[in-house]
């Protein structure tokens, strides 16, 4: 297994971060005034945060979905930063699944969200009205199995539990990509059964399914109960750990009509990812306080194990290309990687923010 090297943000704390970790909060001119007061340094001219120098958002309303998974924490914790981005009407609407999440964004009922890269590929192939903006985090999927399965190749002829046995479901899109990568045809060589989380965990414990594709908090529950063993961990195992898991998407019309609001929303999500990485205890506590989970220990474990801090280190276009190739090889999409990228990406804001937030 392969672990990430330490990204740039691990190496040295900037003065701004030292002050933040000391519990000092500030923005705009308040920060500039503190930074300008040095310890023997020459006085520096006042600076203003990038959020203050951007034009105001074209709309002050922003609609996010929520689904029963806490790996989307950057999106949920973005609420901490949206007010300073100029959003006064932030709505979090409940979606029953990632499929509803994607459908809501494509239909214009929701504006911005995070979603698994493979599902973004299948949605774009099907003509969804979405645009991919950038990367949010690496990893969250884990494949748990019974003793009958010791490697991914052992899944040939076995039964795998997923939420839905079709490529629009994120867990199916992920495991189909994994199977194709090792030369197994997911449409012929493996039996997929749709089950909700509680049922899937029970069936795996009873040995009635051979494997289950889990994501937070289900993988934490499986570990706590000692059910199954991990065959693949996308947070640690190459090549999956070398690509984004979740990317940020927006409704295409929303992004076209509201470019400033789109960039500001993306900035808030990326700051949410940094919060997860730098202050995992606080992030976990906020997730509980805001009602996204009732289990602080599971939330904290998720914040500490998902590599939220490496969003600056990868190329989101490489991620879409990788999953497009796998899903095309499996016959689950018709589009080529170049067609997917041309149809549904806009990296301008992400590239600008990666530079802007480099030392934050």
Describe this structure in words.
By secondary structure, the chain is α/β, with parallel strands linked by helices. 48% of the residues are buried. The chain starts with 14 loop residues before the first helix and ends with a helix. The protein has 3 domains: 13-48, no CATH class; 53-138 and 245-314 and 332-356, Periplasmic binding protein-like II (D-Maltodextrin-Binding Protein, domain 2), CATH 3.40.190; 142-233, D-Maltodextrin-Binding Protein, domain 2 (3-Layer(aba) Sandwich). α7 crosses α15 (316-329), α8 (170-181) crosses α15 and α15 (316-329) crosses α16. Mean pLDDT is 87; it is low at 1-48. The protein is 43% helix and 15% strand. It has helices spanning 15-21, 28-36, 50-53, 73-77, 79-82, 98-106, 117-125, 170-181, 197-206, 218-225, 252-257, 259-278, 280-289, 296-305, 316-329, 337-344, 348-356, and strands at 61-66, 89-94, 112-116, 130-138, 142-145, 159-162, 191-194, 211-214, 229-233, 244-251.
């Amino acid at each position: 297994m392969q672990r990430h090297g330490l990204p740039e943000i691990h190496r040295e704390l900037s003065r701004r971060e030292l002050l933040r970790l000391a519990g000092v909060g500030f923005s705009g001119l308040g920060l500039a005034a503190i930074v300008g007061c040095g310890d023997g340094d020459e006085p520096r001219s006042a600076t203003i945060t990038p959020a203050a120098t951007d034009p105001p958002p074209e709309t002050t309303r922003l609609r996010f979905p929520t689904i029963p998974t806490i790996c989307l924490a950057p999106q949920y914790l973005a609420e901490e930063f949206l007010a300073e981005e100029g959003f006064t009407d932030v709505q979090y609407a409940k979606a029953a699944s990632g499929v509803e999440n994607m459908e809501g964004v494509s239909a214009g009922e929701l504006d911005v969200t995070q979603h698994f890269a493979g599902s973004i590929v299948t949605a774009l192939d099907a003509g969804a009205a979405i645009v991919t903006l950038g990367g949010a985090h690496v990893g969250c999927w884990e494949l748990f199995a019974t003793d009958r399965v010791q490697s991914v190749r052992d899944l040939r002829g076995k039964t795998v539990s997923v939420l839905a046995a079709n490529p629009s479901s994120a867990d199916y899109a992920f495991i189909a990509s994994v199977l194709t990568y090792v030369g197994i045809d997911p449409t012929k060589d493996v039996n997929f059964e749709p089950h909700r989380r509680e049922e899937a965990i029970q069936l795996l414990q009873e040995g009635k399914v051979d494997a289950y594709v889990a994501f937070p908090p289900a993988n934490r529950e499986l570990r706590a109960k000692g059910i199954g063993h991990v065959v693949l961990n996308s947070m640690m195992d190459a090549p999956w750990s070398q690509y984004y898991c979740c990317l940020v998407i927006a409704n295409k019309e929303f992004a076209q009509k509201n470019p400033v609001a789109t960039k500001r929303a993306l900035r808030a999500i990326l700051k949410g990812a940094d919060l997860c990485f730098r202050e995992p205890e606080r992030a976990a506590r906020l997730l509980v306080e805001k009602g996204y989970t009732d289990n602080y220990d599971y939330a904290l474990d998720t914040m500490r194990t998902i590599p939220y801090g490496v969003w600056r280190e990868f190329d989101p276009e490489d991620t879409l290309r990788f999953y497009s190739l796998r899903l095309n090889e499996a016959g689950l999409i018709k589009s080529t990687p170049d067609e997917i990228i041309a149809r549904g990406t806009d990296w301008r804001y992400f590239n600008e923010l990666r530079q802007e937030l480099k030392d934050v």
